Amino acid sequence: MLWIAWKMLVGNRVKYLGIIFGVVFAAVLIAQQASIFCGLMSLTVSQIRDVEGAGIWVMDKHVQFVDDIKPLADTELFRVKSVPGVEWAVRFYKGIGRARLAEGTYEQMIILGLDDATLVGAPGGVFLGSIADLRKPDAVIMDDAGYKRIWPGEPYKLGRTFEMNDRRAVLVGLTKASRTFQSFPIVYTRYSQAVLFAPPERKVLSFVLADAQPGVPEEEVCRRIEERTGLQALTREQFLWKTVSYYLRKTGIPLNFGITVLLGFFVGTAIAGQTFYLFTVENIRQYGALKAMGTSNWTILVMVLAQGLQVGLIGYGLGVGLAGLFGWFVKGASRLSFFMPWQVLTITAVAVFVIVLVASLLSIRKVLVVDPAIVFRG
Amino acid sequence: MASAASFQTHDDRPLAEVAVRVRGVTKEFGSGGAVTRALRGVDLDIPYGELLMLVGPSGCGKTTLVSIVAGTLEPTDGEVVVLGQDLVRMSNGRKVKFRRDHVGFVFQAFNLLPALTAAENAAVPLLIAGWNRRAAVEAAADILDQLGMGDRLANLPSELSGGQQQRVAIARALVHEPRLLVCDEPTSALDAQNGRITMELIQKIAVQPGRAVIVVTHDSRVYSFADRIASMEDGRIDSVASGPHEPLLH
């Protein structure tokens, strides 16, 4: 009987494609918008992910996200180092500076100051120059996207200079850093150099990066740090989610994307549901004939659900496939952020399942109440 | 007029000899002041091996009666015994199984599934009964062959003429060898020649000693194929005529 259900469904090509279109529409919109949303959210935490080697971030207790800098006194570094279970701890500067380029133009830049001795937090994707060159006077390493933004169309060239806070900066390397939410160029330099590039402030220490001793859980070390210093200590993962959570709670981004996702869901449900319903109504005499010939209501129910499931699977596959293609295309051709984790695929699958379930339920009611005697009416 | 050999609706034969026994059946639609009485106390016996035609003007209750006999509609009152089973007391689930196993249907509008081929359409009752698809289609092809449709097995209904579609419907009605065949206006959508061919096929293939055939019709040209004709008027059986019948003009 499932075979008959399938033949009935594909036999009416216009309705069949109409139902699939509704599901694809919803799946594309949900998957694509959710992926762009995830892409944007991933931008907000890109700098946390790019800092390698440090499992623990220590900061002022009022910091809410990675760009919410509340500088600490330099002495806090030593207090963190003294906490039992801390293997090592280093300074980390993060701030915004204004660069004056050789052409006389100005550009906002994100300055990341790494510990002078260890260079902990240095980017991993240096493709021109080397991390060790940061030890040279006035040396900075810039991210690839930032370079292309400042000097569009120009070939990579080390040795370029620009000024920040009236101090000379010399480009000694280029790296593939992740894009940031603000999309400013990122420059990596030594901590001692970074505080000179930054506007003068009494306190300049943004974060203390630390790691736990082997065998001591990071969460436990964080707890001890908070207990002994009064600072906020988070594991890398905790800080990442705290930042995402801030953007979710304090900005309109989730609402905007949520509205579009809901729109896709409702429009998809309306198209698929209505077309499926019309398909069922069009075939109501056939269902009546099947019931008259001895098909049980249970079998009819399974047939309609199987039809819904089939269009759901096809629509889902096409929808997420198209959304994935869109993401692949825009990632290469534009600066639109796109990130499709498995959670997006799961959410889209659940949404599509609900859509086909709603569409099927509308039709199921119709076929279950149809009187088999309908076939004897002219 | 038909040559009337008998005007009895039933003759109190033993139940084992009758495929259908209907006694005092009434059917009302609606409620309160808007009640419509479609059947007003119908008595009828149809013995095995008989082709009975149910005739009468529109709205006289033919379709209601045949729906009740086929087990697709509940009577308001009365007794309905089909193939020895009391349909009035039968649960809905058992009635579905009863129809599946014992009743064949030929509908006025054919009601073929447009996406299935002739052979697949004819195989539907076997598929409902849980047959393997290949075996069901092969069995359906055999019966279509008997009905002269052996060269049209792979055609969709839209590729067949009305007469050919009705032959597929007959094959579908008989493929599972039902003991009761219910035909609702099987010739009304066909021209005279196809109508005659359809009735010839029903008479030749469907009428068997262990099976009863009920044909609801308006078409007086096919009356000659009936063993008996039950004439209905205003929810009652007006008369039952036996013997050879001339085409009637109402």
Tell me the layout of helices and strands:
The complex is a heterodimer of chains A (about 375) and B (about 250).
Chain A (H helix, E strand, L loop, with lengths): L1 H10 L1 H32 L1 H5 L5 E4 L16 H6 L4 E15 L5 E9 L11 E4 L9 E5 H7 L10 E4 L2 E9 L10 E5 H7 L9 E6 L5 H12 L2 E4 H15 L2 H30 L1 H9 L4 H37 L8 H28 L9
Parallel strand pairs in A: 3-8, 5-7
Antiparallel strand pairs in A: 1-9, 1-10, 2-3, 2-6, 2-9, 4-7, 5-8, 6-7
Helix pairs in contact in A: 1-11, 2-9, 2-11, 2-12, 9-12, 11-12
Chain B lengths: L17 E12 L6 E12 L3 E5 L6 H8 L7 E6 L2 E2 L5 H11 E4 L11 H5 L1 H5 L4 H14 L15 H13 L5 E5 L7 H15 L5 E5 L11 E6 L2 E7 L8
Parallel strand pairs in B: 3-8, 3-9, 6-7, 7-8
Antiparallel strand pairs in B: 1-2, 1-4, 4-5, 9-10
Estimated share of beta-strand residues of chain A: 15-25%
Helical content of chain A stands at 40-55%
What is the straight-line distance between the termini of chain B? 9 Å
In percent terms, what proportion of residues of chain B is strand?
25-35%
Helix content of chain B: 25-40%
Please provide the count of β strands of chain A.
10
Termini separation of chain A: 26 Å
The pair of chains with the biggest contact is: A-B, 28 and 33 residues
Output the CATH homologous superfamily of the domain at 49-71 and 96-242 in chain B: P-loop containing nucleotide triphosphate hydrolases
Q: Quaternary state, please?
A: heterodimer
Give the SSE order of chain A as H and E letters.
HHHEHEEEEHEEEHEHEHHHHH
Number of helices of chain A: 12
User: What is the third-level CATH name, the topology of the domain at 49-71 and 96-242 in chain B?
Assistant: Rossmann fold
Runs of chain A with pLDDT <50, length 5+? Answer: none
List keywords for this structure.
heterodimer; A: about 375 residues; alpha+beta; 2 domains; six-stranded mixed β-barrel; about 50% helix; elongated; B: about 250 residues; alpha/beta; Rossmann fold; six-stranded mixed β-sheet; four-stranded antiparallel β-sheet; 10 strands
